[in-house]
Amino acid sequence: MFDKILFPTDFSDVAAKALQYVKQLRAAGGREVVILHVIDQSNLELLSSYSTIQDYITIEKEIEKRSSEELGFISNELRQLGFMVTERLEKGIPLRVVLKVADEENPSVIVVGSHGKGNLEEILLGSVSEKVVRKSRHPVLVVKR
Ligand code: ATP
Ligand code: MN
């Protein structure tokens, strides 16, 4: 039932909490985890309009490097528990890319945090988790902050 897990993460505290639930799914028959991070295109566009090309390239590379490091840390933790792990680092609009990757990977379950780095107090769900719950045809486990 939980054979293949898609875990989209923005590396926020809430996503870290969601990772604890991903780990627990090993005992429930989880075998494979696809960890996905989407570098937000709109942040890059903002950056490009405020910096020189050279700075932009440097910062973009730095963002990519840190993102793959973060993915690596999570992979290691999951592999130690016996999961088969795939890392996916993508660029684009997070909620669109998460849905696209869910279509491609066809997971048994998607595990997301209810919120992410935005972390506005009042809102019930962040825009990514809301879209995933509404639009995805896969079961979704939403871990609350
Ligand atoms: P908003 O972005 O709408 O201001 P938020 O940041 O609080 O609100 P979301 O972005 O919806 O909330 O984050 C909810 C969950 O969605 C995160 O815990 C994470 O699991 C996933 N997520 C969010 N952004 C990304 C991303 N860039 N890449 C991968 N997963 C993401
Ligand atoms: Mn967000």
Give an overview in words.
This protein has 145 residues and is of the alpha/beta class. It has a single domain, classed as Rossmann fold, CATH 3.40.50. Helix content is 49%, strand content 22%. The chain has 5 helices and 5 strands, in the order E-H-E-H-H-E-H-E-H-E. It has a 5-stranded parallel beta sheet, with helices on both faces. Helix 4 runs parallel beside helix 5. It is globular, with a radius of gyration of 15 Å. The chain starts with a strand and ends with a strand. The mean pLDDT is 96. The structure holds adenosine-5'-triphosphate and manganese (II) ion (MN). The site of manganese (II) ion has 6 residues, from loops.
